[in-house]
Amino acid sequence: MSILVTGGCGFIGSHACVVLLDAGYDVVVLDNLCNSTREVVERVAQICGRAPIFVEGDIRDAILLESLFSEYEISAVMHFAGLKAVGESVAQPEKYYDNNVGGSRVLFAEMQAAEVKTLVFSSSATVYGDPASVPIAEDFPRSATNPYGDTKLQVEDILEGLYQQDSGWCIARLRYFNPVGAHTSGLIGEDPDGIPNNLMPFISQTAAGIRPVLSIFGGDYDTPDGTGVRDYIHVVDLVAGHLAALEYLDKNQQLLTVNLGTGQGVSVLEMVHAYERANQCNVPYQIVNRRPGDIAECWADTRLANQILGWQAIRTLDDMCRDTWRWQQSRKSK
Ligand code: NAD
Ligand code: UD1
Fold it and tell me: Closest ligand 2 atom to the C-alpha of 87?
């Protein structure tokens, strides 16, 4: 039996391939390479000693999906394929609705037709909008502050509808907090195109001298040091949470919604200093205006994931910083 991993060449999907192959599953990757390269498949094979099957294609291609489900014995899908740049989603909302919502609809319809009804979906803490308090629990109200976030809300709702119509579905909606880090091999990691939007790749590129200075967006938040606070989670812990969810769904038919985070808030300044300490490097920074749409603090209540999945993040901030730096260094020699 195989697991279909959509978006399996991307940052999180590639780490999911590793954890699945290591756990003994066969893996079929479907990726259109709009934000990744096929080289990732070889790198996953280097890490695991065996390769996933790679199919270049789009989740919006119903005919391709139909042929995949008939050719391979797929028992479940991990669905990572999607666009994720918040700013771009504001500029080009249709592109996001078409890819993230339209693509998911096609995928779910083809799963239903093939009687493959086990799904792990990449949702996001962005569905909590601007939360009234922290830590954030799964039953907090949901809202979207941008089209990207709205696509996550819509797909969550589609999944709820599917489950209500047919309780044969086994669905995990995993709400990620801030995934960072890289595999310890330095072979796979986050590879943003152009100027990074997210903090960790920006810190790495600044430490590597690719960017002269990190702009810290806002020093006047109501937080202990005035900078924004987030729940950064190591990508290897995150994908371990996916494996735990898959194994849980194997025994329990239901619609599961859980946060994947560490439960610890870390400020931007704390992250900068942790990075410098862990890697003995220098990250020049300047404090600038707040980024529109940013919230002051966001971290997870992780009790549900602990209780239901028996999972918790174990990697430290130091691990996140060291593994990101190892990956960054390996990019330099590419
Ligand atoms: P990524 O861009 O690195 O990976 C996504 C992959 O999907 C890429 O390889 C891309 O080529 C592929 N893809 C996109 N659209 C496709 C389509 N229509 N058909 C086939 N392949 C397609 O992103 P990531 O960081 O690995 O994120 C994976 C998922 O997790 C996304 O759905 C994202 O929204 C979600 N998520 C990510 C974060 C984060 O901080 N990285 C946080 C919360 C949720
Ligand atoms: C952002 C998205 C969120 C998405 C997530 C993962 C926004 C408003 N939110 O979350 O929807 O799910 O990425 O892709 O874009 N920071 C700096 N300087 C930088 C970059 C970031 O100071 O150059 C700060 C931010 O203000 C924030 C923290 O670092 O306080 C984390 O930022 P980032 O990595 O972009 O993640 P989020 O904003 O939490």
Answer: 15
Q: Where in the chain is the domain with CATH 3.40.50.720?
A: 2-182+232-261+301-314
Q: Whose CA is closest to atom 22 on ligand 2?
A: 216
pLDDT in tens, 155-201: 999 999 999 999 999 999 999 999 999 999 999 999 888 999 999 99
127/257 Cα distance (integer angstroms): 12
Classify domain 2-182+232-261+301-314 at the CATH topology level. Rossmann fold (3.40.50)
Q: Which among 11, 35, 86 is the best mutation to test ligand 2's pocket, defined by most ligand atoms within 8 Å of the CB? A: 86
Give which of 175, 119, 179 is closest to 149, Cα–Cα.
175
pTM of the model: 0.98
Catalytic pick among 148, 163, 176, 248: 148
C-alpha Rg value of the chain to the nearest Å:
19
Q: Is 260:175 a contact under the CB 8 Å cutoff? A: yes
294 pocket-lining for ligand 2 (C-beta < 6 Å): yes
> For 199-228+264-297+319-332, CATH number?
3.90.25.10
